[in-house]
UniProtKB/TrEMBL annotation:
Catalytic activity as recorded in UniProt: N(6)-[(R)-lipoyl]-L-lysyl-[glycine-cleavage complex H protein] + glycine + H(+) = N(6)-[(R)-S(8)-aminomethyldihydrolipoyl]-L-lysyl-[glycine-cleavage complex H protein] + CO2
Any GO molecular function: glycine binding
A cellular-component GO term for this protein: cytosol
SUPFAM superfamilies the UniProt entry points to: PLP-dependent transferases
Residues covered by the Aminotransferase class V domain: 180-299
Principal EC category: oxidoreductase
GO biological process: glycine decarboxylation via glycine cleavage system
Pfam families: Aminotran_5, GcvP2_C
Function: The glycine cleavage system catalyzes the degradation of glycine. The P protein binds the alpha-amino group of glycine through its pyridoxal phosphate cofactor; CO(2) is released and the remaining methylamine moiety is then transferred to the lipoamide cofactor of the H protein.
Region annotation Disordered: where it falls in the sequence: 1-21
Protein name in the entry: glycine dehydrogenase (aminomethyl-transferring)
Length: 514
């Protein structure tokens, strides 16, 4: 009798083979095309009655060939896939600049309430009075926290909000008759990559502002770039090095004196909520990532929301739709009215309703003091990590207090011959998702860690101890721990460059032998 062949070779898993390739109760799961059968389905579908096709030459001539699974098989397949996805519910998610904080389940319960979870953007306005009130109340909170008089709620995420703010600035410049001359947007070299992209999308050209030795915008260099051709600056505060821009007021004053506008990237707003208001600092426009600052982790490309708060200088140019208080209560202004200077519409509807509900639930359950404490705790957590690792790992701008995230570089790894990637991959063997690596670009071999306020001291202590143990191993020459890591994950290290340049987007059945 022939011995049955195991489905996956030992070389793929990097471990002594088991017959199933399962490892303990961590189950191997093939692609649905590999395990499915075209003639199997979990439901019975009746044959259609005779009909006349309207597809013409586009009608399929061959079976579609989609895989089929029974209902238990389908359930097991997707549950097994879900177990392979690391999440904030499984452990600390230290991605810098991404704010992967705990999402309270109260938010989810509120988002699923009848009247929020089952409404449709095209139903009559008279039937969604509660939703309009919620949008209005959320807007009030956002304006109060930022010190700004207006907010556009329709942008769907951060980059969409950036585009909204830049479109408002472009409209304001055009209203002043300077559209032909003010074409330059200044972007610090530590900015998020979406900043120059958003400016270019709207039709501006960009000019880079260097950072100083302390990791902050070089104020003298900035002033040297100002002129009648400058439309705005796009600056993140705290910046992507995890540092507060201490010259923020002076930057705003310089921009305004030059006739330009100040756009602040609000991706890191969660470090300063309740501590300072961007409007008081001279900011003209700022997007707010509701899906970052106000609890909902945004991994996996899930729904986002990027409302944009606007100063009095830009408020008249806000896009439609927006909620407005009228004689008969709240109404949704859907179209640009005759006397309006709005730049128009940039989204079909009002925004991401589910995200609005989650964000307001988070705000109201925390209150003003709780939101302020969340900012304080996020900054405290990041500085705790910084202080606990600074004797082993180097920081590109010196060992100075950070805000909500701490930035290390790879200078300390140089004697070992290891790379930032090697260190990050070894973290996977310890059960940790790696931090953000190689960003921001101003730090060579960057390692950007953001613990958020969600983690307990015990959680942070174990994370710090793990990184210290890895660092000692690297410095002691224990290179086998890093080269080729991860060793214990279901898959070994992938060739990510090749995967990005030559993606395989279609499954092809293996050729049949014989």
């Amino acid at each position: 009798m022939n011995r049955p062949e195991h489905p996956i070779s030992a070389t793929e898993t990097g471990r002594p083979r088991s017959f199933t390739s399962n490892r303990g109760l961590c189950l191997e799961e093939g692609l649905i095309f590999e395990i499915g059968r075209p003639n199997v389905t979990g439901v019975d579908i009746d044959e259609p009655a005779p009909f006349e096709t309207r597809l013409g030459a586009l009608e399929r001539e061959e079976p579609i060939g989609l895989p089929g699974l029974s209902e238990p098989e389908a359930m097991r397949h997707y549950v097994r896939l879900s177990q392979k996805n690391y999440s904030i519910d499984a452990g600390i998610y230290p991605l810098g600049s991404c704010t992967m904080k705990h999402n309270p389940r109260l938010n989810e319960a509120m988002a699923r309430l009848p009247g929020f979870g089952d409404i449709h953007p095209l139903q009559p306005e008279s039937t969604v009075a509660g939703a309009l009130e919620l949008i209005s109340e959320l807007s009030r909170w956002l304006m109060e926290m930022t010190g700004m008089p207006a907010v556009a709620m329709s942008p769907k995420a951060g980059a969409h909000g950036e585009a909204c703010g830049m479109m408002a600035i472009k409209a304001a410049i055009a209203a002043r008759g300077e559209a032909a001359t003010r074409r330059i947007v200044l972007v610090p070299e530590s900015a998020h990559g979406t900043n120059p992209a958003s400016a270019a999308l709207v039709g501006f050209a960009t000019r880079t502002v260097p950072c100083g030795a302390d990791g902050r915008v070089d104020l003298a260099a900035l002033k040297g770039l100002l002129g009648p051709d400058v439309a705005a600056i796009m600056l993140t505060n705290p910046n992507t090095c995890g540092l507060l821009e201490s010259d923020i007021v002076a930057i705003a004053e310089a921009m305004h004196e030059a006739g330009a506008y100040f756009y602040c990237d609000g991706a890191n707003f969660n470090a300063i909520v309740g501590k300072t208001r961007p409007g008081d600092l001279g900011v003209d426009a700022m997007h707010i990532n509701l899906h970052k600052t106000f609890s909902t982790p945004h991994g996996g490309g899930g729904p986002g929301a990027g409302p944009v708060v606007l100063s009095a200088r830009l408020a008249p140019f806000a896009p439609v739709p927006f909620v407005q208080e009228g004689e008969n209560g709240l109404r949704l202004v859907e179209h640009v009215e005759a006397d309006s200077r709005s730049f128009g519409r940039m989204a079909a509807f009002h925004g991401q309703m589910g995200m609005f509900v989650r964000a307001l639930s988070y705000m109201m359950s925390h209150g003003a003091d709780g939101l302020r404490q969340a900012s304080e705790d996020a900054v405290l957590s990041a500085n705790y990590i910084r202080a606990s690792l600074s004797d082993l790992m180097t920081q590109p701008f010196g060992d100075q207090p950070c805000m909500h995230e701490v930035l290390f570089d790879d200078a300390w790894l140089k004697p070992t011959g290891l790379s930032t990637l090697d260190f990050a991959k070894a973290m996977i063997d310890e059960g940790y998702h790696p931090m953000t690596i190689y960003f921001p670009l101003v730090a060579h071999g960057a390692m950007l860690i953001e613990p958020t306020e969600s983690e307990s001291k015990a959680s942070l202590d174990l994370f710090i101890a793990t990184l210290r143990d890895l660092a000692f191993s690297a410095l002691d020459g224990e290179l086998d721990r890093f080269v080729g890591a991860p060793h214990d994950a279901p898959r070994r290290r992938l060739d990510e460059t090749r995967a990005a340049r030559n993606p395989v987007l279609k499954w092809t059945a293996p050729a049949q032998e014989g």
